[in-house]
Amino acid sequence: MKRFLKRSWDYGLLILKGVMAAKSWLLAYIVFILIPASMLLYTYTQKSSQILVEEVTNSMLQTLKQASINLDYQFDSVRDTSNIIFMNPKLHQYLSSTATVGQQLDSLKELRYLVDNAQTNPNVFRVRLFVNGNRLYAGEKVNFFTLDTLKNRSWYKQVRDAGGTMLWTGAYLESYIDTESTYVFSGARILRDPDDYEQISGYLLIDVAEKTIEHILSKMKLTNEGHIYLAAPDGTIKSSNEKELLGTTLKSAEVLEALGQRDEGIVPLMKDENPRYVIYTNVHSTGWRLVAEVPKAEITSRVIALNQFSGVATLFGVTILFLLLVFILLAVIVRGMNRRIQMVIMTIKREGIDSLDDRIGSSDALLENSVDHLIHRVHDLMEETYRSKVQEREAQLRALQAQINPHFLYNTLDTINWIAIGRNAHDISQMIDGLAKYFRLSLNKGRDLVSISDELNLAKVYLEIQQTRFPKSFTFYFEIEEDLDRYEMPKLTLQPLVENALLHGIRKSKSKSGTIRIRAYRDGEDLVLSVTDDGIGMEQELASSLLTKPQPDLRSDGAGGSYGLYNVNERIKLFAGEAYGLDIHSKLGEGTTVSVRFKIK
C-alpha cells in the first residue's frame, strides 16, 4: 500500500513538473492568443446573436402572414357562401311573415335544397337558419331553429346591431342533435322581412369547424413549445388549443396596445415570468390577429444553431494559431529531447533496466521521470502475472480435491446403506438411499445446468426424505408436460421452492398437514415450473416483498432466516434476463403458489 501511495505521489509530481516546465509557453498562449480570441469571439457572438434573433423572428412573422392568407381564403370562401344565400330573393320570400301554411310547406323543400347546396362548400360545417317560432319548420333543429334559442348567445346583440353585415363569432362549443358536440366559428347576420323591412325575419349562421382552422395552423413549423391563437384587436381570445382561454382577455398591456394599434409586429416580453416573443399579423377577413407566443429559449436555441458555423470557424482559427505556437516550441526543444533520449537508450543498453532506477529516481527531468514510471509499471505487471499463475494453480488443485470428495461421500453412504439392509433397517436404508440420490443430483458433476427431469427428481427425493422425517403429514404429486427432458435449467431452482412450501406453508398451519402440487409446462417460448401448497399462506404484499429483498426473519429450516426465494429469483434473472424470474401469489389461510419462468434453452 505504501508503495502504491508513493508511486501515485511521484506520478502527480511528474505531471506538475511537466506543467511548470511549459508555464512560459502556456502564459504566452493565454496572453497573446486565448484572451484576445475570447474577447473577439464574445463581441462577435453578441452582435451576431442580436441580428440572428431579428432574422428568426422576422422569418416567423412571414410564416404567420402566409398562414393568415390561407385563413383569409377559408373565411372569404364561407363569406361568399353566406352572401349567395343572403342575396337569394327566394330566401326572403320563404321567410315572409305573410306566407300561408301551404307556402311554408312548399318553401321547406326549397330551403332544404338551398341549405344542402351551400353545405357542399368543404369549408362549411353547417348552415343554420333561426326563424320565428310560428314557422312550421322552425323546430326541425338540424338546419332550422327558433329565434328564442339564439337570444341567450353572448354575441346575439352584436349580430343584431350589425344590421345585416356578416359578423364572425369566436370559437365556441356547439351541440348538434345529429353529430357530436364540436367547436365552431359562426359567420352570423340578420335577415329582414321583405314585407316589413324594420322587422327581422331570421338569422343566418354559417358554421366553420375550428379543426379546419387548426389544420392550417398545424402546418406551420413555427414553434414546439409556444402557443398560437386568434385574438380580437381588444385582446379577446377567439380561438386557442387551450379551450379554457376562449373568451378571456390577454393580460399583457404591451401586447394589448400593439394588437389595438398595428396590424402586425413583434413584441418582446422579457420582464415577464416566462420571457417570450409575441409575433402577430392581421387576418383581414375577420379583423382578428393571428398571434404566436414563442419562448425566448426556443428563439435562443435557433440562434445558437445558426451561430455554430461561425463559432467553429473561430475555434478553427484559434487552433491554427495554437498549433503554430506548438511547432515553434518543438523546433526549440527537439535537439535537447533527442540528446536526452539517446542518453537514456545508451544507459539501458549498457547497464540494463534495473540500474536505471537509481540514476533517474532523483532526476527532475520530465522524460527521465516518465521512463522511471514506465519501469515501475513493468515491474508491477510482472508481479501481478506471477500471482495470477500461482492462484490459477491453487484453483486447479482445489478443483481436483472437489472431484475426490463427492466419490468418498457416495461410497460412505453406500456402505451405510448396505449395513442398514443387513440389519433389516429398511427405513434407514430408504432414507440413506434418498440422501445419496439427493447429493448426486444436487452436485450434478459440477455443472450449473441440469435437465428438467433431474431437477424434478431432486425435488421428489427431497420430499421423500421429508416424508420420512414427517410421516403422514403431507402428500405431493407432479403434473409434468411431455417432452420437456431435452431442455435445461439452472440447478437447485425448484428445491428451495418446495422447501418453502413445506416448512413455511404446510408445517406452520394448524393441522401441520397438507398437499404440495408441482407443475412443469411450456408457455409459448417460455418454460414454467410452479409449486402450490394449501398451507398457511400470507398477505400478498409480504409475498411480493420476498422477491425484492432478502428476508432475514424467514429461514429455510422453519426457525427463521431464508434468502432462498430472493436468491433463486436473482439467479433466474442472471440466467434468462430481467423479464424472467419468480412470481408469488398467496392468500392468507388458503395457500401459496410460486412460479418460476425462464426462456427455453
Account of the protein in words:
The protein is of the alpha+beta class and 601 residues long. Among the domains are: 125 residues, Beta-Lactamase; 144 residues, Heat Shock Protein 90 (2-Layer Sandwich), CATH 3.30.565.10. It has 15 helices and 18 strands. Strands 1, 2, 3, 4, 5 and 6 form a six-stranded mixed beta sheet that branches. Strands 8-7-11-10-9 form a five-stranded antiparallel beta sheet, with helices on both faces. Strand 4 and strand 5 form a beta hairpin. Helix 2 runs antiparallel to helix 8, helix 10 packs antiparallel against helix 11 and helix 11 runs antiparallel to helix 12. It is flat. The two termini are 47 Å apart. About 3% of the residues have low confidence. It holds the Pfam family His_kinase. Keywords: ATP-binding, Cell membrane, Kinase, Membrane, Nucleotide-binding, Transferase, Transmembrane, Transmembrane helix, Two-component regulatory system. One of its GO terms (molecular function) is ATP binding. Its main location: membrane.
